Amino acid sequence: MNSNIRNAAEALVRKLQADAAPNTVLVPVNDHYEIKQVPSLLAIGPKMEENRSKRIYEKRVETDRVSLAYAERNWPRFYHLDFDLVLTTGNGMELLELQERLTAFFLDNISLSIPCAVGWGLGPYGIEPWGSESGDLKFYLREMVPMGGLERPNLSNLRQASGRYRIEDVPVFDHALEQGKLVVHRDFVLCDMESRVPVETFSR
Fold it and tell me: Measuring CA to CA, how many Å separate 59 from each of 54, 64, 107, 129, 188?
């Protein structure tokens, strides 16, 4: 099953590993992780928060005029994914250098792209699961607390700096789906081309 939350989190970790900190590890919110090498970056999360301003209560209906069918389902809920980034180094000078590199990373990358699931598309109202073309979904990255501005306990003899960053508006769809025919019964009347008199009637 395709998961937007998983895809978004993995895309962020891969991007951080490639451009900022090779030893980046994703850690669940309530898990304990032992740092095995330095420098390292822990992406702790995601902590989810719904964007209620984008909640839509009406149904979304898509029609197929070729097959005379329709599909009806709810609009998705949009969630922000918050990550606490914990940077750990062996000395203070290295910490400052990597702290600036991570800060610049989020200045350079204001958005994050992930592959779109098959059958989803970008419609006039945002992300729609009825699109016939596949593409990339774009999510904006937001700095909530700058790197070094988030206070966390450090019980080791290593140097640490922490910040909080957010992936905005990741859509989550429910499984309620109603499908049916637009036309249940059709009558066809064949007429003589010259007189227009009905000559045959049949149903489909």
Answer: 14, 16, 38, 13, 33
